[in-house]
Amino acid sequence: MPSPSASPLLDLPGAVAADAPDGGVAAHYGSFNLEQRTLESGEGFVDLSHRDVLRISGPDRLTWLHNLTTQHFLELAAKQWTGALVLSPNGHVEHAFYGYDDGEAFVAHTEPGQAAALVEFLERMKFMTRVEIAEVTDELAVTWRPRASSVVDHAEAFYDGYELVPREKLPVYAEAAGPACGLWAFEALRIARGEPRLGIDTDHRTIPNEVGWIGSAVHLDKGCYRGQETVARVHTLGRPPRRLTLLHLDGSENRLPTRGAELRLAGGGEAEGAGAGKVVGFVGSSARHHELGPIALALVKRNVPVDAPLEVEGMPAAQEVVVDPEVGLHVRPRLG
Questions:
Q1: pLDDT tens profile 54-64
Q2: Cα separation of 202 and 129, whole Å?
Q3: How far apart (Å, rounded) are the C-alpha atoms in residues 257 and 54?
């Protein structure tokens, strides 16, 4: 079913709508810097109701998901949230979703506009399994808060900041959980934490080891699943082909790089005279952080030195390691 066109919270004072692929929710409510500080203080919430939601029901759902995805679903406790990936036979990430089981169904959210493709894939994989799959974006909305609070009792469950709220209760939820903070503030903090988004910070060749999804969305001690051989081999031998990195961009220009822009070696350091100008990766999401300045996430070839100066669309960029180039694990600390 089609996703709702716009959030009712765009009617809140000061709301400015975000651009694609995040249209339908507020980019900010007047000051994204102040909104970042509000979230970092542990207050406020973010409207992510543009994200797609699906429900998987039926008595075989957890066993089926366990066999199909990268995550361990057997004996999953009620309301225990988890992340999972669907991989290609070669280990490339095709789908990513996050959700919980309520004892009757597994409910999950994924990137905006991606539920239809995910549901289509899951339907093809049902065979004789007793499961039912449906998109329920028109029923449930995604929100994010920096911490759980007993003040808000309209959400179904809480996980790493994410909640699912009955869509018709969004206005009353906002009143209880406020102040409302926009997507720009959320994205700046997400990027600073080194958390990638599928399809924005990844491409069709991305494997979980490159972007820090080992552990959080990939369970290493479970049975076979599609693409497991690639994940296990890279985890055992190390040295993933690429690595997610946090870029600190030159703030002298009042612009951010284009999503998907080529990342190149800059002159100076080890790159001087040895490949300056060579394309070594691409830039995904970017934002203006209230303390760090302009930042971005990028996928960089593993053999690029972690201290090599880089540039994107003429902007100098310094690296901060997110995923270890040798072992393919996320190394950045959680920043709240």
A1: 999 999 999 99
A2: 31
A3: 32
